[in-house]
């Protein structure tokens, strides 16, 4: 990932800079509006650099005023196995919630409500669930746990890992993976999930001239990230997509980072909420 991001950064400069020089020459001779060209645009240099406390205030202000509508991807994840367990089928997988939540912005949905539901409704405990009943059961469990998405370990041989996004429907998975996390302990599931989605952060809002990113894995101040163009509507990142901007992390918290665009391909370039970001750090 680190080598890939470096190559994309180089591409952003090398592929765009010659076009910029050529277009500039054409503009001088033809009188075209410079704003009509797509070229590398350097950032506006701030005369006053905000302090760390000011960055913290900006980010805290955004978090305080934000609501769920700005979250461009699922946050609360429920992990289940299709085969029968302590709560019947499907059954919650035992993950380390503290380690999962600490890895990044993703949150592990609490499955205790499922246990209580089965205790109060013992006839709902099934050793095996018919395929046509699965969507309704997933919906029930998502409602009970307030999950935005469900990761289901299937009972196929070998098993696959299916991802359902609640607001996109539960009749069929949106994603499927052949290999699951190496272990269910520590932060392995959270790390696996971010790797499968193939990006490190997602733009969830802005505060003034700054972008607010939800980080899917640990990030450090000063880290440089590449914004993938036209990625706002996708659940999975695609490193082959065109790079629209380069940004840098200015301040970080447990869940979010405050960043600022340092280079864009076009003066009219706008980073949309939901855009996926790749970072150049391990």
Quick structural summary:
The protein has 282 residues and is α+β, with helices and mostly antiparallel strands.
Report on this model:
The chain starts with a helix and ends with a strand. It has helices at residues 2-14, 17-30, 52-65, 97-103, 112-120, 131-145, 188-197; strands spanning 76-81, 91-92, 107-108, 149-153, 161-165, 175-177, 201-207, 210-215, 224-228, 243-252, 256-264, 276-279. It is elongated, with a radius of gyration of 22 Å. By secondary structure, it is α+β, with helices and mostly antiparallel strands. Helices cover 29% and strands 23% of the residues.
Q: Helix/strand-derived class? A: alpha+beta
| Helical coverage, percent range | 25-40%
First-to-last CA distance = 8 Å
Low-confidence stretches: 13-37
Sequence of secondary-structure elements: HHHEEHEHHEEEHEEEEEE
| pLDDT averaged over residues | 83
- Gross morphology is elongated
**Separate helix tally:** 7
User: What portion of the residues fall into strands of 2 or more residues?
Assistant: 15-25%
Number of strands: 12
Largest sheet: 6 strands, mixed
How much is the radius of gyration in Å?
22 Å
